[in-house]
Amino acid sequence: MRNFRDRPIKQKLAIIITVTTTAALLMAGLGIVLADSLLFRGYLRRDLTALARIIADNSTAALAFNDPKSAAETLAALRARPHVVGACIYRADASILARYSRKDSFECPGVQEQKIQFTRDSLTVAQTVLLSGRRIGDLVLVYDLGELYDRILLYGSTVLGVLLASSALALVLSSRLRAVIATPISQLAQATTSVSETGDYSVRAERISDDELGVLVDRFNGMLEGIQSRDNDLKKALLDREAALRDVERERERFHFMAESMPQKIFTAKPNGDIDYFNRQWTLFTGLTFEQIKNWGWTQFIHPDDLEENLRAWRDSIASGEPFILEHRFRRADGAYRWHLSRAQAMRDANGNISMWIGSNTDIHEQKEKEEELQRANDDLQQFAYSASHDLQEPIRNVAVYSELVAKRYHSVLDADGQQFLGFLQEGGRRLATLINDLLTYTRAGMAQVNEAPVAASQVLQHALSSLAEAIREGDARVTWDELPEVYMAESHLQQVFQNLIANALKYRSEAAPQIHVSADVQGTGWRFSVRDNGIGIDPKYKEKIFGVFKRLHQDQKYTGTGIGLAICQRVVERYGGRIWVESEPGEGATFFFTIPRHPQRVRSRAAESSIG
Amino acid sequence: MAQQVVRNPAILLALVIGFALAAPNPLGGADESLEYRVKAVFLLNFIKFTEWPPSAFTASDSPISICILGADPFGDSLDQVIAGESVNGKKVTAERLRQAPSAKACQVLFVSKSEKNLDKILPALGQGVLTVGDEETFIRAGGMISFIIEDRRVRFDINQTAAQNAALKLSSKLLSVARSVEK
To answer: Chain A contact for B13, CB < 8 A?
Structure first.
C-alpha cells in the first residue's frame, strides 16, 4: 500500500472527507448512545424508585394488617412493566409477605440494604415501607436491564446505519467537490512538469478559481514570467559574452598574426609584469622556447651588466605605468650579445586600469656600431683639431710677436703702404690667435670628466661674474640669482657655460641697462637652469642656428666675438647628457635654458661610452 | 427512643405473624390471648388509617384515646401495644369504660362482646368516635368495624356509611384490606 503522503491530492481529499465524516459521525453516534444510556439509567433509576415508593405506599395497609393477598394484588400492578422481573414485600422481620414474579425462576433476593443496585443484567431497587414514620416492612424490586441493552443495540445499529449511509454520501459528494480543489492543483502540477521538462517558460497555468489556488496560479504565472524574462536576459547576456569573447579572441589572433609577421621582437605582459607572450622572432633569436623565457624567464638572456638597470626600469614602469624605454643587450642563440632598443606601453581599460603591456624590441646593434664608428672618427677629428690648434698657437704667436717688432723697429723705413699692410698683418694675427684659443676651448669642452664631487652652482656663478667684472661695470649691468643647487659637473665647464651666457647677454644688450637673472628648478630627472636677460632678443627662426660653431647673426662691428661661445655651451651641456635651448622674441629679451642630470651616474662621458662594445 | 421505635413494632409484628401461622384453633383457649394481641395491634393500626375531624378532640394536644367498653378481652396486650405510641403527633392512650363514654372522651371505642344493647349505645355516641366491635354483626348494628376470624386469621369488615356519618374518613388502603365494605 502506498504511503498516504504520496497519493494524488484527489485521493487524499476523498480519504480526508470520508475519514473526517466517519469520525465525526462515529463520535456523534457514540456520544448519543453513551448519553442515552446514561440518561436512560438515570431515568430508570428515578422511574423505578418512584414505582417502588408507590408500591411500598400501597402496601402499608397490607403489611399493617398482615394481608398477603392484598399485598400480592398490589404487586400484581407491576404486570404493566414487562421489564420488572419480580418483586417481594418483606415483613419487618424479613419474612416474605408477598411475591410477584414474571418468570418462575425468580427468587426473592432478600432485604437489601442498598437502595439501588446495578448488576450486569439487572437493577435491584429496595424501598422500606413506612407507616406513621415507622418501618413496617421492605420492598425489593428487580428490573431486567434487557431494555437498556435493547435501547443501546437499537441506537448503535441506527448510528452504524446512518454512518455507513453518510460515509457513502460523503464519498459521492466529495468526488464531485474535490474536483474543485484537485483540478486546479493538478493543472498547476502539469504546467510545472511541462516547464521543467521542456524548459519552455512561455507556458502559463489556467486560472480556474478566485481563491488561494487562483492566487497560487497567478503567482506561479508571475514567477514564470520573471523566470522567462530573466532566462531571456541570461541568454542574451551569454550571447553577448560569447560575442565579446569571440571579438577578444579575434583581436588576439589578429594581434598575434601581426606580431608574428613583424620583423621586430614583440611581447606582451600582464599588469604585474609577467610576460605572457613572445612572438616567433623572440624564440628564433634566443633559441629558447616560450616556456623557458615566459614570465620572468627572459632575465637569463639579458647582458649581466645591463640586468640590474633593466630590472629596476621594468619594475619602475610596472609600478608607475610610465612607458618603459631602455637600450640593452640580449644574448643571441649563438651566444653573441646584440644591442636592442626596448619599448613597452601600458594598455588601459575604460576605467584607466592597466590591462596589459605591449612591448617591442628593436635590434639597433648596427646603428649602435655605426654611431660608435662615427664617434671614433669625430673623436679623432677633434683630437686632430685640438693638436692642430695647440700646435698652431706657437707659429701664430711668432707672427704676432715679430709683426709687432717690425712695426716698432722698422716704422720709419716703411712707407705708408708698408705700414698699412703691416697693420693688416697684425690684425690678422690677433684674430687668428683669438680663433685658435676659442677653438682650443671648444675642443677641450668635449673632453669632459665625470666629477665625483658636486660643485655649488652659485659659487661657480660668482667665479664667472668676477671674470666678467669689468664688462659688467662698463655695461652698468645688474646680475641677480636665486638659490642654486649643487651639480655633478667639472667646475671649469659650468663656469664656461655661465660665463658665455652672461657675456652673451651683456653683448646683445638693448638701450636699457642689462638686467640678468639666473635661476634653477627641478625638471624630470634633472636640473633646469635659466639665464634671463632684457636684451634685444632673438628671432625664433634662428633659435637652432645660434648654437652652431662660428655662427654669428650680427656681422657688424657693434658686436665683437668669434661666434663660438654658444657652441661651447651646447657642447658642454650635451657632454653631461643635458640640453640647451633659448626662448625669445625680438625686443623682448631672451632666456637661455639648460638642463643637467641630478645624479652623477646618469652622466655618461663620451670617453666612457667609447669603451663600450 | 429510637431503639424503642424499632423494637416495639418488631415485637408487634412478630406477634401478628406468630398468631397468623401458629393458631390452629381461633377459638381455642390458649389462642385467646394471642388473638387479642393481634387485635390490639389492629386497633392501633386503625388509628393510622383514619382521619378525625378536629371536633373529635377536646383540645389540639389531646391524646387519641382507645376506650374498651365492657369486659376487657385484651388483658395487658393493648397497653403493651400502645405503650409509647403516638400517631400524627398525638399520644395514644387506652381506657376501660363501664358505660357509654361522654363526648370527645374516646376516639376509638372497642365494644366488647359483653355489651348486648348496641341499639342504645351506638346511636348515643356523638360524632368522631370510631367504633370497633368483636362480632360480625356489629357493623349491621351501626358499628363501623367488625373483627372477624377467617382462615385462622384476624380480619375485619367495614361499614363505611357509619364512619362517614360520624365524620370519619377511612383510608382507601384500609378499605382495600377489609374483607368487605358496606356502603
So the answer is: yes
